[in-house]
User: What shape does this take?
Amino acid sequence: MALTTAPDPTRRGPGSGRAHSARRGPGAIRHSEGLAGYVFLSPWLIGLMGVTAVPMLLSLYLSFTNYDILTPFSEVEWVGLANYERMFTADPSYWHAVRVTLTFALVAVPLKLAAALGVALLLNRAWRGVGLFRGLFYLPSLLGGSVALAIVWVNMFNRDGAFNSLLSLVGIEGRPWVNDPDWALETLMVLAIWQFGAPMVIFLAGLKQVPTELYEAASVDGAGRFRQFRNVTLPMLSPVIFFNLVLETINGFQGFTAAFVLSNGTGGPVDSTLMYTLNLYITGFTELQMGYASAMAWVFLLAIAAITAIFFSTGRFWVHYSDGEDR
Amino acid sequence: MHPATSPTTDTPAGRSHGTPVPRRRLLRGLLAATVAAPLLFGAAACGDDDGAADPSAPVKLSIFWWGGDARAKLTEDALALYTAKHPNVTFETTWQANQGYFDKLATLTAGGNPPDLFQIDDNYLAEYAARSTTLDLTSYQKSGKLDTSKFPESLWQYGVVDGKLAGLAAGENTQGLVYNKTLLIKNNLPEPTTGMTWEQHIAWAEQVTAATRMPGTQDPSADYKALWVWLRQQGKDLYKGKELGFSAEDVTKWFDLWKGARDRRATPTADVIHEGNSSDVTKQLVVTGKAATSWVWANQMPDLKKNTKDELGVVAYPGDPSAQWARASMYWSVFKGSKNRDVAVDVINFLNNDPEAVKLLGTDRGLPSNLDLRRVVSDGTTDQAMKQSIAVEAELTQKFGPSPQVPIKGHSKVKSELIKAAENAQYGRATPAQAAAQFVEACKSAIA
Assistant: This one.
């Protein structure tokens, strides 16, 4: 931290500053400025320690106990690996939640990225009113994980919701999408995919960075539209794709609000929307098994870290950084 | 402890003593005193509530309940009445909808700032009592500070968990089958009656569906209170001691009964049943117009009535009504660590036994627990829905059987597992026997 924040001494202003630095040496400056940096960081650091780090470590401890929220800390019993053992060997609903979450992420994340990239390509043209469309497509993701949006979604995809009214116009009899265990999760996926605005904006920014000479050169070489997309756009965009993929995967795994609202906090109908985080919440707060829920949270953290690590290790084969370093 | 023996840590206290005390022991003693002092003061602070404190010292009591706007207004009025009589006591009230209430209560407790006084129901009473979160009210009851002499005995006993009075009934209710009276009259259909058999109820519902095209009854197979009544009619129970009071065969019969009803179109389709399985009053099918009958608690009548224009009627669940009992619709409990527990208990006593307060509260939390005041309230009420719920409970009071034990720890999980298993059968994803086996299996690990 100190190394990156300390500026080059030669860039300091003329006069006393320079003399000062000459007398005390660059090491001293680094030290004092580093300290100042930490002082300025301290509100954030205190927050990080108090609100994130300490509770996190506490939850690690609790994951080895039978903590049930109501019992005071002093009477909590150490149970060793029992919570982890139960999770892996004796809890079918845990594995059900894992399956639901994986299904959700495997379908929703690629489709969301594809939608984001597709629309970004369309909006990366100099059409009239393109700015308006960029805004409109971005809008849904501003609403983010909001409860209001999830409520609207439930009402749209009810048996007598707007979506089925549309279907009936073309003579299709709809289903009670959100109340059908075969379709409830799919409804959530559509909601997630629809909110592709954030990755879309990032893709747009990435597309703007691709030098036009490359396309010119490609078309001189006789490459058509598709060829250009495959051999110029995709490689040039790969760092941005990578960034979006990592971020959206993590987001996808952590989906909670929509599932909670749709199912009234139960994960229903018949556990079809029992996402990992929702299962964790129910275990901890409704069933009062906070020790067990803490263990779930830690396994979740490790799983997401492992998946991210896998992305990073494969990235070397398909992510191209054109910033001079040839990789 | 070793560094303490170094000469530089010698204390003036050590020198001033006339008799030489071995330095190490003295320091050890000082250290122990430093550690113990806050504990002792803490303990003293906890104990100073037992009469020694000034009775007119200002007290701010935190109180937490679930419910709607109407309940909030009634409760706040009743509490204001208490403040008028005891100006030193003021209240910090918090209330919210039932959904999420217990999550919040648990979190408040964990965070070390639980309310002094809170509302709780039989789904959670044992969970809280087993962990000693609730104050045992027995001694207050014995000393008469908490007067239950006018209560039906079975009602206050329904608050006893492991020999401790963990909560005092804030009102009495019982299972109630609420039906759409307007619809039946319009179609010239008979109204259901208390004492109908289950078979008769389903046949009646089938007839309603055929005549009105509105499904006759919500399928209650996911509803623990309906299953509970039915089990008691079979000579079983939900719990026996720390065990389940039923077997997979019993539940199979229960699921089969309702599979038959669904096949005869006496009930709505699975997705509509699922909507009605919510505990939310506003989503009950009898008020959303998706079924002619819902399975609720009798004291919910006025609340249901607010959500529909149709006239409603209420009777007991089918089968022998003596399987129903005078249930504490909800309790008031005091947090064990509360510094104001004496005042909190006095407030509970006030809310249950003060004529003016009870009149204000009406039947919002169930019929008043105090029988004398119950009579006054039921004679005085003008609310039609409230009158009906009072009438059905008064009728049933003659027939009530003994109260079952309060549901045990793990009950909330049992409830959600029942919904899951029943819905599996309703959506046709499992046979009644498979769903029943799955349910019993899940219950066993939930209450283990």
